[in-house]
Amino acid sequence: MKNEKKATRQSYGEALLELGKKHEDVVVLDADLSTATKTSIFAKEFPNRFFDIGIAEQNMMGTAAGFATCGKVPYVSTFAMFAAGRAFEQIRNSICYPKLNVKICATHSGITVGEDGATHQCIEDIALMRAIPNMTVMSVCDDYETKWAVESIYKIKGPVYLRLARLETPIIYDENQKFEIGKAIEIGNGKDATIFATGVTVNEAIIAKELLKTKGINARVIDIHTIKSIDEEMIIKCAKETKVLVSIEDHNIIGGLGSSIAEVLASKSPAKLIRLGIQDSFGRSGKAEELMEKYGIVSKNIVEAIEKNGNL
Fold it and tell me: Which residue of 201, 228, 257, 271 lies most exposed, with the fewest beta carbons within 10 A?
């Protein structure tokens, strides 16, 4: 892990620019938030392929669907609350039902939006998006993973929801890391416990892994960047090989990463799963790091959960 930090929304903007240079069919749509979503980076270089729809997110999704029917590959951006929330019906009926090639890249997800408060802290978007047929759902954790995802989703045909964050997080990977949509990344091979994480919580999981090591507990971290379709093989493998399973996410524990893993375990390899996340409550205004601690999604919560439930 490197000391450098970067928000995945910034990496997204940079990756969009490089993608636009390679593919002339890429168009970018935003809803009056291009400075925050970092699509302004693309807009500056390709003004004729950038469309600011204004504060009209539902219309933006319909417009993106129209672009897709004409052979363009639209990357659509706004805050997660306005994408997954306000425009849900248009995503469902205008994009996913006809399985159109639209990439919805939502920034400012989770409670780590911070001071914007509960109204802007979307902790339900993974649940909403993965429940729609034909939708691929992804949540990335660092600079390299984001840039890889932006390019990789161009290559698959059909709707994608890519979850991005406002909070700056450490760069975990490097250019040598192998990425594949639908395949989780295993960090370490500890036999005592497995920590499943996604997005901003991957870094917390890695910190917890090192803390547990000092206590003689060997844990592995599984970065689940693709939540739908999820890597069932990896989940089953971890259930069979490790004594304790923990999931952690900046999302409601209902319908998110933990629920996705629990569904696999229930049908394929029954095992107890400890789910850490937002415990079915709304967020509140505050600094992102303080909110992560308040809502129990930092490394110490992982360590406590494993020590309490592991009999290690």
Answer: 228
Give the start-to-end residue ranges of the domains of the chain: 5-170, 185-310
Helix, strand, or coil (residue 195)? strand
24 is catalytic: no
Return d(Cα 2, Cα 151) in angstroms, integer.
23
**Top-level CATH class of 185-310?**
alpha beta
- For 59-83, the DSSP string reads HHHHHHHHHHHTT-EEEEEEEHIII
CA distances from 116 to 94, 112, 250, 302, 310 (A): 30, 9, 15, 26, 37
* The architecture CATH gives domain 5-170: 3-Layer(aba) Sandwich (3.40)
Report the SS3 class of residue 57: helix
C-alpha 108/C-alpha 114 separation (Å) is 9
pLDDT, tens digit, for every residue of 125-170?
A: 999 999 999 999 999 999 999 999 999 999 999 999 999 999 999 9
3-class secondary-structure state, position 175: coil
- Interstrand relation of 226-228 and 193-197 (parallel, antiparallel or unpaired): unpaired
DSSP annotation of 275 reads E
The b/e string for 6-23 (b: 16+ C-beta within 10 A; e otherwise) is bbbbbbbbbbbbebbeee
Q: Which residue has the tokens 């390679």?
A: 22
pTM of the predicted model as reported, rounded to 2 decimal places? 0.96
The one catalytic residue in 18, 45, 57, 186 is 57
